[in-house]
Design goal:
single chain, L-fuculose-1-phosphate Aldolase, binds zinc ion
């Protein structure tokens, strides 16, 4: 395996493990995809049924972005959505997870607006998208790329989260930040705080500085 491939595989395994340890996925939920060449059509994607927290090399499939790729039936059930996002946006990596707090807020809210500094920095707004079929649907294939051109993270009502980045590490950073935002909003509501007032707090308005790169994020 080339040095570049080894780097991709290591990053994928680390991110998969992190999603499980952090409670962003249950044992078998979630999936990922990563574009592996600058102009090329090839991606790495999770094998259907593999555990995100314990990925082996054989759980990482190399397929193309073609909707007719014969290996699609071996890949994640959400593979066509991953392909559509990578074909139709500038994202180079897509991470899908089932974080509890973001999913809970998404059951009622139309959007999640962070009230903590870090999440507000990365994610001014997290839209909640509603689908009749909220998993592996044509409707999601058509809608998600448009939203993920504009937003780093979207919540799918009743299902979970899709996030994009230039690397999978970056997509993890935004996913985790979205879940932090949702948890802090949830806890603030439990204490009876006024969320509408907190959204306008001065400390959420700050200059945009360069920030340290996430794991795997390239210069
Ligand atoms: Zn899912």
């Amino acid at each position: 395996m080339s040095k570049q491939s080894t780097d991709f595989y290591n990053e994928i395994k680390q991110v998969g493990k992190a999603t499980f340890i952090a409670g962003l996925n249950n044992s078998y939920s979630g999936n990922f995809s990563v574009r592996i060449s600058e102009a090329g059509n090839n991606i790495l994607i999770k094998r259907r049924g593999a555990m995100m927290g314990f990925l082996k090399n054989s759980d990482i499939l190399k397929i193309t972005l073609s909707p007719n790729d014969k290996q699609l039936k071996l890949a994640s059930t959400e593979a066509r959505i991953h392909q559509a996002i990578l074909r139709n946006s500038t994202a180079r990596a897509v991470l899908h997870t089932h974080p509890s707090y973001a999913t809970v807020l998404g059951l009622e809210e139309k959007e999640i607006k962070p009230i903590n500094v870090e999440s507000a920095y990365y994610l001014e707004n997290i839209p909640v998208l509603v689908f009749d079929k909220a998993s592996a649907s044509k409707e999601m294939e058509e809608t998600l790329p448009e939203y993920l051109k504009k937003y780093r993270v979207v919540v799918i009502r009743g299902h979970g989260v899709f996030a994009v980045g230039q690397t999978l590490g970056e997509a993890l950073k935004y996913t985790h930040s979205a879940e932090d935002a949702a948890q802090i909003i949830y806890l603030s509501r439990m204490l009876g705080f006024n969320i509408n007032k907190l959204v306008r707090a001065k400390y959420l308005h700050f200059p945009r500085l360069d920030t340290p790169k996430a794991f795997g994020e390239r210069e």
